[in-house]
Amino acid sequence: MILSGELIHSGTENLKDEIRKIIPSCRMLEEEPMAKHTSFRIGGPASALVICNDEAELAEVLKKCSSSDNAEYMIIGNGSNFLVADEGYPGIMIKLGGSFDSVAIERENEDGSVDVRAGAAKLLSGTSAFLTEHGLAGMEFASGIPGSVGGAVFMNAGAYGGEMKDAVISVRLMRPDGSEIIELSSEEMEFGYRHSAVEESGLIVLSALLRLRRDDPDEIAARVRELQDRRNSKQPVNFPSAGSTFKRPVGGYAAALIDEAGLKGYSRGGAKVSEKHAGFVINTGGATAEDVLEVMRHVRRAVYDNSGIMLEPEVRLINCEL
Ligand SMILES: Cc1cc2nc3c(=O)[nH]c(=O)nc-3n(C[C@H](O)[C@H](O)[C@H](O)COP(=O)(O)OP(=O)(O)OC[C@H]3O[C@@H](n4cnc5c(N)ncnc54)[C@H](O)[C@@H]3O)c2cc1C
Predict the structure, then answer these.
(1) Model confidence over 15-37: pLDDT tens digits?
(2) How much distance in Å is there from the Cα of 251 to the middle of ligand 1?
(3) How far does the centroid of ligand 1 lie from the alpha carbon of residue 105, in Å?
(4) Left if phi > 0, otherwise alpha if psi is -120 to 50, otherwise beta: which for 153?
(5) Cβ of 303: how many Cβ atoms within 10 Å?
(6) What's the pLDDT tens digit per position in 40-89?
(7) Domains present along the chain, CATH in parentheses
């Protein structure tokens, strides 16, 4: 009898043979440790990490992935909201690079606003630097979020009162089978708290069109610096993490609930509830995914016992569960 694990393995090996015909070997990293690609610095190997440099390449790879039986694939951005299992991921991780790592002014509007197209692989920090240099305001809130534009759109990332949906006017996306490219308006993206329509549809973000307003570059830079200072003073930025581990529950803050349950400093192996910010589980060195999951399970139970509120993870759990 063939075990399902073996079936997935052989399906993935066949798929890798197909992808090798499209992607040069230097951009197809086999048995690639995900710890090298996540801000948590945790995670076993993906069967392959494939870097697609343009839309044509991505479409070809997606066609192969979606027509392959018994093989899985997923998109990784900057890996800053990822917890990958210690066993790794048995499928293909697709990362965008090359032409996706771009940002440019697309048009100046009559009302004085300016539309900028940012590629999915562009980091928010780099996007922010570009906008500051060009005197374009409206994305300062995102400057310190360590994600890519693609991941930030997927998550509707937000901070300090702003979120992606405030700036995004439309998103260019590819169907998960690579068959078509579509552009969805901000409304069609159904942005909600740390959520967008991409989550259910499996669409791949190629780029986002952002609407900004003109402002003095020095004032924008000052606002970015102020938010960065606030971040550095409140968050355990010197330790690997995936940011806020849990979503903000209705009517409360995860960090406050975790603090009230007396969990600051709670640790298991190398994973610990940060003493600086209870909302963060940090990797103090050598943490495994199982260490983080154990801490998360304990936190959920203890917070529920203390407050009656069940926290839901914000970090994306890849090939592992609570
Ligand atoms: C120190 C620290 C601070 C943080 N602070 C904040 C904060 O203030 N606010 C906040 O919202 N988040 C914060 N985060 C979390 C994280 O940075 C955000 O969720 C960010 O948007 C994730 O982007 P990413 O590119 O790293 O995505 P990843 O973590 O790589 O992926 C996240 C999800 O997006 C999907 N995805 C990625 N790219 C694409 C694409 N092109 N198309 C389709 N799906 C895609 C992935 O499949 C995955 O499901 C923080 C994280 C850290 C480590």
Answers:
(1) 999 999 999 999 999 999 999 99
(2) 24
(3) 24
(4) alpha
(5) 23
(6) 999 999 999 999 999 999 999 999 999 998 889 999 999 999 999 999 99
(7) 4-99 (3.30.43.10), 101-232 (3.30.465.10), 236-318 (3.90.78.10)
